[in-house]
């Protein structure tokens, strides 16, 4: 079993526990829910740390399927966090309202609603940041692939350039050899003509 597969199994176990704990918190109508809240918060932190380790492992492996799976797990964990926060707010609201009455209860309810909207705004901002991080990661991966293509193309250009230089040197060498051969032919022709002239001269003299 690979490291990522061990992380995968551990993540599934954690998210199952977290879902169960949130359901328990929502189903309890009375009693102290602080221990359950603390335990669930701890499980969420463990899952968050585990997701970070899975991201590092997926990036190191270069496997796009593992990277996609990690992104999906990250979104699932984000949903669980949102459910936990909503549950926690509901528990806090119930606790406040249980000890207040009349006008104070209405004020507390309004304050809790405002806090809920603020938390929702913060959650939306976190989601936008997470999506932005995912887009930045994809752009970085695409740049890496393009860099590899550019490097490969550059190597091919250098190879073609080297072959061109070799061909140029070969043509130059052949041209030089041809010039030398022409000079030798002209020299031999000149010597032959001179010899013929000398022979003719002596024949006429005799």
From TrEMBL:
It comes from the Eukaryota. It is a single-pass type IV membrane protein. Gene3D superfamilies: 1.20.5.110, t-snare proteins (1.20.58.400). GO terms for cellular component: endoplasmic reticulum membrane; ER to Golgi transport vesicle membrane; Golgi apparatus; late endosome membrane; SNARE complex. The chain crosses the membrane at residues 183-203. InterPro entries: SNARE, v-SNARE_N_sf, Vesicle_trsprt_v-SNARE_N. Keywords: Coiled coil, Membrane, Protein transport, Transmembrane, Transmembrane helix, Transport. It is found in: Membrane. Residues 1-85 form the Vesicle transport v-SNARE N-terminal domain. CDD domains: SNARE_Vti1. One of its GO terms (molecular function) is SNARE binding. GO terms for biological process: intracellular protein transport; vesicle fusion. Belongs to the VTI1 family. This is Vesicle transport v-SNARE N-terminal domain-containing protein. It comes from Triparma laevis f. longispina.
């Amino acid at each position: 079993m690979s490291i990522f597969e061990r992380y995968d199994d551990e993540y599934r176990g954690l998210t199952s526990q977290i879902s169960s704990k949130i359901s328990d918190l929502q189903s309890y109508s009375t009693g102290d829910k602080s221990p359950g809240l603390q335990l669930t918060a701890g499980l969420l932190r463990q899952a968050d740390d585990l997701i970070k380790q899975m991201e590092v492992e997926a990036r190191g492996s270069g496997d796009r399927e593992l990277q996609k799976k990690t992104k999906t797990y990250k979104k699932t964990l984000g949903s669980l966090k949102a459910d936990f926060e909503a549950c926690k707010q509901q528990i806090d609201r119930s606790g406040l309202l249980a000890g207040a009455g009349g006008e104070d209860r209405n004020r507390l309810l309004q304050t809790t609603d405002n806090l809920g909207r603020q938390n929702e705004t913060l959650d939306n901002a976190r989601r936008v940041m997470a999506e932005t991080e995912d887009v930045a990661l994809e752009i970085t991966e695409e740049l890496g692939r393009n860099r590899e293509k550019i490097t490969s193309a550059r190597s091919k250009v250098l190879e073609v350039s080297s072959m061109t230089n070799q061909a140029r040197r070969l043509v130059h060498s052949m041209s030089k050899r041809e010039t030398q051969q022409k000079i030798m032919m002209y020299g031999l022709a000149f010597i032959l003509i001179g010899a013929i002239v000398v022979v003719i001269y002596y024949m006429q003299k005799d």
